[in-house]
Structures are given as C-alpha cells and as structure tokens.
Design brief:
Elements lengths: L16 H33 L12 E6 L5 H10 L6 H9 L10 E6 L4 H9 L8 E2 L6 H11 L4 H9 L22 E2 L7 H18 L2 H8 L3 H14 L5 H14 L6 H8 L8 H4 L23 H8 L8 E6 L4 E5 L2 H20 L16
Antiparallel strand pairs: 1-2, 3-4, 5-6
Helix pairs in contact: 2-3, 3-4, 9-10, 9-13, 10-13
C-alpha cells in the first residue's frame, strides 16, 4: 500500500503514452495523404501542359532508323518515337524489359514500319532481316580496293574517299605510321550510318586498327624482333597475300630468313601490287617492272604494306614459326597447299609440281588462267 502513496494526490496525471502514439499515427497518415494529393496534382498539371502523343507517320509506312554506337535503350526508344514507329519511349522500355535478348540490340541501320506495338518493335529490332547488312572489309584488300568497297556500300564517292585518305595526318595514326593509310584500314565489320563522311568512315577503320595493334602488342613485339612496328605491319601484309592462315607463321619465317641472309624476297604479291593485278602467274615482262615494290629487283621489304592485314597475319609476323626455310611454293592453288624448304633443289621440284597441278586446275576451271605459265610462285 505504501508504494501507491506517491500517486494519491490531486494533481493531473501525465499524458498516456498510448495517446501520443495515436496522435503520431494520425499526423503521419495526414502527411502521407497530403503527399499523395500533391503527387497527383503534379502529374495532372504536367500532363495538362505536355503535347498529346500522336503518330506523325501513317501506320504501315516504311521507315528507317539509325541506332548509333553507344545508344541506350532509352535513346533507341526515342528514335523509334521520332520515326513514328511507336507512341512512347516508356512503352518500349517496358517491352524491352520483358525480352532477354533486347540487350543485344546494336548499332546499325534498321528498316521498320510505323505503327508497331512496343513488343513488335523489339522483335523487329532483333530480327536480322530488319537490319541493313554492315560494311564488311575482308583481310588482304589494298587501299584502293577498300575505298572502292566503301563507295559501293555508302553514298560516299571514291573521289571524296581518296581525298580523305590523301590527308592521312587527320587520323589518329600511331606515331610510327607515316602519313598514309596503307595497311591501317583494319579488316572488320562496320555499321554504315546515314550522313557519315568519308573521314568518319576511314577514321573508324583506323581506330579499329589501333585496337588490334594494342591487342597484339605490336610495338613491344617488334622490339623483340629488332625491327620497327611498321616493318612488322609490312611483313604481315605480305603474309596475308601469300598464303592461307594455317601457313602464315611459316611464310613470316621465310621472309625474315631471307632478309637476314641478304636475299631478295622475290614475292609475286609485290609485283601484283605494283601493277594493280592479281594473278598466280607473273611473266618476264612483269618481273622487269620498274617499281620500288618489285621485290625481284629490289632488296629488303617494300616501302609500305601492300594490303590491310588481319589480326592473325599481324600475330604471325610478330611470332614467326621456327625453321630454316628460304623458299615456299603453293603447289596446289585451288586448295592453297603450300610447301616449305631450305633447299633450292627441292624448291625446283615444288615449282615443277605447281606447274603440273596448276595446268590441271586451269583445265578444270578450278583456278583462273594467268598470262603465262613461265613463272609460278615465289622462288
């Protein structure tokens, strides 16, 4: 009983904790309601001032959109809306979220139709048939061939491309590359975009070459070989022109062995480059060509790469096979079977084998006939 005495007095009791909790909950509820009302008011107000979304292109009309490198799905959605393919960006994002493959939508030119549903637009962008084929630059093309290929697949003229290529200093070339684009228009697949300039197209190829040069550690590798990076690139172009990929490293070794021995390279590929031809057979007149690229008459490497080598050829030039070979002959042109030897007598045997097989394959229509059968391949 004595423990209750302190509470037996006439003063008012302190407020109940339960009362404070009820008040707090009431205030939170009122605040939340106010917040909801504010958000609703803001949405209604903003929507009232926004323009009504509508398709400006007749549904079913063919449209073309260009997705640039680095475009996010939001940017892609906006391009679709701008082209009249869809009504809203948010609907495209929502549809893309339901499609696992949507992250593979990449840069390129797409042919679509206006008035698609968001899900249809996603499927259309994932359909290879909707995408314009990219510009594919294969390994071993000469500079003039690359420019012609670009012109044939874009709206850019060969004259504009040649003018841009002639001003090589404007591109991001490595310091060890002279101001010319021979060998550095890297073979790869490139998306072609509308309104691209000649400088932009060529610049993309140079940039891709820089990536390959870094990946192959071209500069460091050339130091180990005690040659310059540009000489490695030139050897790679010869390798690309002379053999099948399975023999790249052996051909590179032959080239380095002949250079070390002070022998002329005597490569038909350089004669063809000098004359702008492509033949398995070179004539005596062709061998007499007065050109710095005639490796039958001039010692050492040609002054520049003769084509744009791919990464495999560059790697072969950096890491040649081990061997004492000084000669090689492609004894079966149709199947690109090449024989290697350090013996001149064995080389003559391979040469005779080439002549027999070549004549048979020409008769069968398996290979094109050259101007003459006097000189087969590389001595």
């Amino acid at each position: 009983m004595s423990q209750l005495l302190p509470f037996l007095h006439d003063e008012p009791l302190p407020p109940s904790r339960n009362d404070r909790s009820r008040i707090r909950r009431t205030m939170i509820a009122v605040g939340a309601l106010a917040l909801v009302l504010a958000v609703v008011w803001a949405v209604v107000t903003v929507r009232a001032v926004l323009p009504t979304e509508s398709v400006s292109v007749e549904p079913g009309t063919a449209v073309t959109i260009v997705i640039e490198p680095g475009d996010s799905l939001t940017a892609v959605g906006q391009r679709l809306v701008d082209a009249g393919v869809l009504l809203s960006v948010s609907s495209f994002i929502a549809a893309a979220a339901l499609e696992e493959q949507s992250t593979t939508i990449g840069p390129g030119v797409y042919n679509l139709t206006a008035g698609l549903t968001p899900a249809e637009a996603v499927r259309a962008l994932l359909d290879p048939a909707s995408k314009e084929p990219p510009l594919v630059v294969r390994e071993g093309l000469r500079l003039t061939e690359v420019l012609a290929l670009i012109a044939a697949n874009t709206g850019i003229s060969e004259a504009d491309l040649a003018a841009a290529a002639g001003d090589a200093g404007q591109f991001d070339l490595p310091a060890w590359v002279p101001d010319r684009l021979d060998g550095v228009l890297f073979p790869a697949s490139y998306p072609v975009f509308s309104q691209m300039t000649s400088t932009e197209v060529l610049g993309a190829m140079v940039d891709r070459f820089n990536i390959a040069a870094n990946e192959t550690e071209l500069e460091a590798g050339s130091k180990r070989l005690q040659v310059t990076p540009y000489e490695v690139l030139t050897v790679a172009s010869l390798v690309e022109a002379e053999a099948a990929p399975k023999d790249f490293r052996k051909v590179a070794r032959v080239i380095y062995n002949r250079l070390a021995a002070g022998q002329r390279l005597e490569l038909d590929s350089t004669i063809n480059f000098a004359l702008g031809t492509s033949t398995l057979i070179v004539t005596e007149d062709m061998l007499a060509t007065d050109s710095a690229y005639n490796t039958y008459r001039n010692a050492g490497l040609p002054p520049t790469p003769i084509n744009s080598p791919g990464q495999a050829a560059i790697e072969a030039a950096l890491k040649p096979a081990k061997g004492d070979w000084l000669y090689f002959v492609t004894v079966n042109p149709a199947e690109r079977i090449t024989r290697f030897t350090a013996s001149y007598e064995r080389f003559l045997e391979y040469k005779a084998q080439f002549q027999r097989v070549y004549a048979e394959q020409v008769a069968q229509g398996l290979v094109d006939a050259g101007p003459s059968a006097a000189n087969p391949s590389q001595p």
